[in-house]
Amino acid sequence: MLMTESASLVVMKFGGTSVGDVSRVKRVAEIVGEYRESNPGVGVVVVLSAMAGETNRLVALAKECVERPNPRELDVLLATGEQVTVALLAMRLNEMGIPSKSLLAPQVRIATDSRHTNAQIEEIECATLLEALREGGVPVVAGFQGIAGSGDITTLGRGGSDITAVALAAALKAETCFIYTDVAGVFSTDPRVCGEAKLLERVSHEEMLEMASLGAKVLHTRSVYFAMRYAVPLIVLSTFAGPFEPGRNGTWIVNEEELMEKPVVTGVTLRLDEAQITIEAMPSSIATMAALFDGLSERDVYIDMISQESVGGDAVNVSLTVPDEQSVTALETIRALVPSLRANGVTVERDIAKVSVVGIGMRYHTGVAARVFRCLARENIDVQMVNTSEIKLSVLVARKYCDAAVRALHAEFIPEGATVSAKG
Ligand code: ADP
Ligand code: ASP
Ligand code: MG
Questions:
Q1: Are the CB atoms for 327 and 350 separated by under 8 Å?
Q2: pLDDT, tens digit, 9 for 90 and up, residues 124-155
Q3: Per DSSP, what are the bridge partners of residue 111?
């Protein structure tokens, strides 16, 4: 990533709901104007998402047109959502007397690899942005998009505007990267699932990485990675709840050393986008397991949980979870392998949910698993699979229990009144 000499500047990213219609775009322009007034001399770079629902609408259009959209063309289509909002905001800022220019990824030069629909940022050029800032203007950058070496438009994966914002903040050595969204910050669980969710004042990078990858979509996992790797000061806050005010609106994402307390569990998360695949009555041997997982890795299938259950003799049922969008590929691959594995067949279950508890305090405490199982047993919720790491424990449950499981685990681990409860 190209680094530049540091100037005093901040990056402000506004998500889809924050720019969901023209009146909200106008409100965003006011927030930018107010920030400039109270922080004279501090440059502001804005990053925007598409209007809420627009990227889904574009995906649906593509799928209406063809069954399997070509990824290159899909990226050309999806990148249009952000083009609309950046132009509208720049118009509005200019009208308010704040010089502003909208910039698409090829104009900034946000260079990515060529993995269409899931591209990774490789380098960001800062010259155009710095020039706009030197002229006293506000560059408004389209999030979520990039440009591959071939000159093709790419996108960074769903929710990818967060990545654009933090990567720009890193490249520009910004003082702070503000992620404005539709809730007051990072909560102990999704406030839309659990009314008891608490606003967290500070969350460590490691916890946020786990929470994001386990379903807390308030930040994209790779944006947290950039913040950690390049030490970008990061704040998540609501567009609709006034300025950043610790305890009321906003969460700092910080290094572990900056945390005063390390509760056992900081957050409870939920993912609904995985599928469970079971290979039935396969002879148990390391060689057959290796053949099974070799086959899946050749097709680039991501595997999350794995379990094995004896079903008599030397036969086992092997279950694994994969991202739902890869379940068709995984099924095709395994079906082709069933004869050589000498298994009975393969089934898929999509009515599942992964519920996780996350906390760096888990490193220093024992008995977390016992509490999780006791708590779910009280609610009569069966656990189908388990996965643990140093700072998280995930359980797979039937989809119908997902909200009940989140609420029960939240009540079990997050003490009432531990943090201020506030929603944006
Ligand atoms: P944006 O469009 O601003 O990027 P997203 O929809 O991507 O917003 O992310 C914000 C949403 O994330 C919230 O509306 C909330 O429902 C959801 N969310 C899930 N888990 C959490 C959590 N632990 N804390 C805050 N929000 C969460
Ligand atoms: N518009 C893109 C999406 O909906 C990117 C983003 O909003 O972060 O996934
Ligand atoms: Mg988002």
A1: yes
A2: 999 999 999 999 999 999 999 999 999 999 99
A3: 123, 147
pLDDT at 106: 98
Calpha distance 82→145 (Å, rounded): 8
Q: Which stretches of the chain drop beneath a pLDDT of 70?
A: 1-7, 417-424
Is the dihedral angle over the CA atoms 111, 237, 92, 94 positive or is it negative? negative
Q: Among 382, 379, 392, which residue's Cα sits nearest to residue 353?
A: 382
Q: Hey, what are 188's tokens?
A: 């102990």
> Which protein residue has the closest C-alpha to ligand 2 atom 6?
159
Return phi, psi of residue 363, to 5°.
-65, -30
Is residue 181 within 8 Å of 28, Cβ to Cβ? no
**DSSP 3-state of 262:** coil
Q: 122-157 b/e with 16+ CB inside 10 Å = b?
A: eebbbeebbebbeeebbbbbbbbbbbbeeebbbbbb
Q: Which residues contact 272 (CB under 8 A, 6 or more apart)?
A: 215, 353, 354, 399, 402
pTM for the structure as a whole: 0.93
Question: How do the domains of the chain map onto residue ranges?
Answer: 9-256, 261-414
Phi-psi region of 170 (alpha: psi -120 to 50; beta: other; left: phi over 0): alpha
**Is any ligand 1 atom within 6 A of the Cβ of residue 319?**
no
Could you tell me the two tokens for 142?
């389209």
Phi, psi of 49 (to 5 degrees): -90, 175
Cα of 158 vs centre of ligand 2, distance in Å, is 5
Angle 348-351-356 (CA atoms, 0-180°, nearest 5)? 110
- Nearest-5° Cα angle at 135, 234 to 22: 60
To test the pocket of ligand 1, the residue of 31, 181, 239 to mutate (highest count of ligand atoms within 8 Å of its CB) is: 181
Q: Which CATH number fits domain 261-414: 3.40.50.1470, 3.30.450.80, 3.30.2130.10, 1.20.120.30?
A: 3.30.2130.10
Q: How much is the pLDDT for 417?
A: 65
Write the CA distances from 83 to 87, 146, 403, integer angstroms. Answer: 6, 12, 36
Helices marked H in 144-265 — which ranges? Answer: 161-171, 205-213, 221-229
> Is there an atom of ligand 1 within 6 Å of 207 CB?
no
Q: State the fold for domain 9-256.
A: Carbamate kinase (3.40.1160)
Q: Is residue 333 within 8 Å of residue 301, measured between CB atoms?
A: yes
